[in-house]
Amino acid sequence: MKRTIDDLAVFGGPAAFLNTVTVGRPSMGDRERFESRMAWVLNNEWLTNSGPLVSEFETAVAEIAGVRHCVATSNATVGLQLAMHAAGVRGEVIMPAMTFAATPHAASWIGLEPVFCDVDPVTGLIDPDDVKRRITERTGAVVGVHLWGQVAPVEELDRLAHDHGLVMLYDAAHALGCTRDDRPAGSFGDAEVFSFHATKVVTSFEGGALVTDDAALAARARSMHNFGLGQGGRVEHVGTNAKMSEASAAMGLTSLDAFAEVCEHNRRNHELYAEELRGVKGLRLHELDLEERSNYQYVIVSVDPAHTGIDRDEIIRVLAAEQVVAKPYFSPPCHLMEPYRTETPQRIESAEWLAAQVVALPTGPGVSAEDIRRICDVLRLVVADGEHVARRLTAARNAPS
Ligand code: T4K
């Protein structure tokens, strides 16, 4: 255990970990089951184009989302594009500034215009009042984001979209298995999109899924994700290639087998972080609503430099030297990043404030209770004399090499 700041690896002490502990380690499930599924795929010689494993994966995801239709995709970014295309969205799309670049990119890439709105300063979730303020005659859709394993305020957003005749979509990349008022993510708005990227709670290497209860929208999306082909192999729509492969589905199904166990492991990890960081000045673990279900895939801590004496980015540097990869999900907020930044950027206050403060800490099946205690030991040591650590980091950076 490190006792003084001289023991920190960033100042020459031994690293707290021999092997990297990181956010985003894949939850791959049982390797033998994956290999046996892959053997089946290879023997079957059916690799893509809505094969049997993709169909099985779609059925499983639709069940988790509590909807009738699921179209598996090659990733969530094209899944969002597909959702917007299939729903016939035009013009401006309102979305939170506090999200991953994929959300605005999905709109921009297909010629739509992202319009960023603010989020709740505590939950980080899209603020429906600010959405309302930004609706114009050019608005075509709202994309809510279920951030960090929490579901957006869907009842207000769905009502708002309905009252203004807008398409309502959700970026549910973080929210597989999460609920709001006991209803699962995936069952709200016109359609929702999950991600099964390597870093997500369920992975299919790369992958996504559009889920909806709207049969016509699902049919258009299914056709559009396969070059717009329809009945008899005729092209019916503009289309793309957004299909999931059988290899991805084999991984997706295997990862899904472990899903409940992973969520429970993540829940215990989250609880331990809460215990370890309780009362630590300037560090606030982002709490989750215990009445709801979450996948606990994101352990988010806000760093308030007014109390720690050291800012979030310096803390990430200190952790990196200890072999701990923590990530500023998401910074900068989208309206301040290229290509969305403007000459005189508007203020989107809560998103900016959160984006400057939050850091995601490692969790997942590979992160043990002992790992968490060690990470939190480092954090407590750093913020106990944060100003001193920050000064030394600055001096080390400015020292002639
Ligand atoms: N909407 C939202 C709100 C999202 O967060 C995302 C994706 C999307 C939409 C789009 O979903 P997809 O189109 O990807 O399906 C990562 C992911 O690339 C991205 O999928 C994810 N969000 C975003 C939050 O995080 P990076 O740049 O942080 O990834 P990277 O490569 O630095 O990985 C993070 C850590 O994960 C590494 O330090 C180590 C670990 N890792 C990563 C990979 C890829 C592994 O251990 N194994 C791996 O294979 O963006």
UniProtKB/TrEMBL annotation:
Give the molecular function GO annotations: pyridoxal phosphate binding; transaminase activity
Q: Name one Pfam family in it.
A: DegT_DnrJ_EryC1
Gene Ontology biological-process annotations: polysaccharide biosynthetic process
Q: Which residues form a coiled coil?
A: none
The record places the active site at 200 (proton acceptor)
Where are the N6-(pyridoxal phosphate)lysine modifications? 200
Signal peptide interval: none
Give UniProt keywords alphabetically: Aminotransferase, Pyridoxal phosphate, Transferase
Which PANTHER family does the record associate with it? Answer: PROTEIN RV3402C, TRANSAMINASE
Q: Family assignment?
A: Belongs to the DegT/DnrJ/EryC1 family.
- Supply the name of the protein: Deoxyhexose dehydratase
What is the organism of origin for this protein?
Aeromicrobium erythreum
